[in-house]
Amino acid sequence: MSFKYETITLPAMAQFEDLESLVPVLSAVLVVVASYIVYNVAFRTDIPHIKGLPEIPGAVPVFGHLLKLGEDHASVCEKWWRQYNHSVFQIKLGNTRAVVVNSFDDCKKMLLGNQNAVIDRPTLYTFHGVISSTQGFTIGSSPWDESCRKKRKAAGTALSKPALRNYYPMFDLESYCIVRDLKADSRNGELEISVRPYIQRYALNTTLTLCYGIRMDAVYDDLLREILHVGSAISLLRSASENLQDYVPILRYFPNNTKNAYSKELRDRRDAYLNLLLDKVREMIKKGTDKPCISAAILKDEETKLSGVEVSSICLSLVSGGFETIPGTLTSAIGSLSTEEGQIWQDRAYEDIKRHYPDTSDAWTSCYMEEKIPYINAIVKEAGRYYTVSSMSLPRKTVTEVNWNGAIIPPKTMILINAQAGNHDVDHYGDEASKFDPERWLNTINPPTEREITGLPHLSFGTGSRACSGQHIASRLLYAALVRILSSYKIVASKTEPPNTDYVDYNEIKTALVAIPRDFKVKLIPRDDSATSDCLYSAKERTEDHYKE
Ligand code: HEM
């Protein structure tokens, strides 16, 4: 035993002594590894500090500026712009460096002056990795590649100005349904009413018809509300403040990651209704009862260059592009028009409708074909500018260097366009920039004539290589609905549930990618009851054969 003991322990002792001599080396290695991990988790960003571009002070380890940005990124960045006197600056969203652009002129210069360089979109862990793993990315969240180019082209063709004529019957039907149901549900103005649900159905039915040839007649239809609910919840998951794990990767590895579980649940619910809609189209094609729509055209066209996932992605892009932006803009505009100050704008709009179409029924049949009434055009533009429903636009990413006044912004840098700040920039819109005033777009008021705008009126649709593909259809939808509602009713804000018309605070959920206006009610006072009834009757006659469920 003792022999064994000696033969085994002596070399072991020697090894131990060797190890002891290694301790300082191992400790040094450990310190280096630990520092490396701490540095990477706490301080490293995907893009190193950009020389020559101011950085907002006060970034903290791990989170960078994320916590300081709070829930309302657009307003905080707008405040930093004025506080530090730099319209363009860099910040750290956890491990992601971002360049924020604020003034109107700088936003325009970044998007138009560097069209090719800022054509990309960033990918986010939760939205792209979890939610979009089954149906593909929407166009607005696709990085720039060949597939995105094809999808954007297909959507651009379907939503181009000339293509709008194909949708006249649908515009007619859907805007008719707004007035029909507002009239019925308010008992022709006896009861105060919330307008948003009617506008939500308007926007959603338009894109569902466009994509699938399917619509829902009831304002509180189960499928309609499911699509709206899931769509909103998903768009909330795209916002930085709601989803820290996108920017602070270590959070993804925490046990019981509820964000991932919730994202998967939403993804499954969205897959369920998207598949249901496509199955309905397939069934209608089989029976020969399909309506002209994007998915039927592509499903039937064997020569199409688009894959199944690309078709789903286009439909998803159009549905999600419009279902919150249109209601956000139109509902809020109706809120501003319903105030005491708004009564004069409504009266002038009504007079202008009558000036161009002495017979109201002509206004009703023209409003989805042409946008000729200057006062209504002015309201549409002001609604888009003032209520910047997508306050931080959709993020962009550089593909090549951008030389910003000598500072080199490298490829793969996130670019955030603060459309809300640019749209309320006093240097561009004057001292009254923070006031809702449709007449800023007019040259003369009596009679209203439109100011000629060369270039970009506002930043709400973005601009340049990835500008909103739906802006023509969006303007037409806003215009048609306003003509029909304003020619039928004088809208007066409820005394007990009035609208909030502050351009920041009207939004109930500041973290959402697209604003959700706080609810409010209005009273509808009929303008010319028999004219409205005639218009409704004719619209019913014209549209009832179209797009029946
Ligand atoms: C008032 C209504 C709308 C607003 C305020 C709005 C706003 C925006 C904004 C800010 C962008 C990003 C632009 C950029 O990065 O420069 C965008 C992109 C997009 N919008 Fe809209 N939008 C509206 C309506 C619509 C509608 C009705 C549709 C479709 C039917 C639509 C489809 C799209 C698509 C497909 C993109 C992605 C473009 C791309 O990434 O290439 N939008 N929209």
Automatic annotation (TrEMBL):
Signal peptide: none annotated. Keywords: Heme, Iron, Membrane, Metal-binding, Oxidoreductase, Transmembrane, Transmembrane helix. Heme binds at residue 468. GO terms for molecular function: heme binding; iron ion binding; monooxygenase activity; oxidoreductase activity, acting on paired donors, with incorporation or reduction of molecular oxygen. It comes from the Eukaryota. Gene3D superfamilies: Cytochrome P450. It comes from Cylindrodendrum hubeiense. Belongs to the cytochrome P450 family. This is Cytochrome P450. InterPro entries: Cyt_P450, Cyt_P450_E_grp-I, Cyt_P450_sf, Cytochrome_P450_fung. The keyword Cytoplasm does not apply. Its cofactor is heme. The chain crosses the membrane at residues 21-39. The keyword Cell inner membrane does not apply.
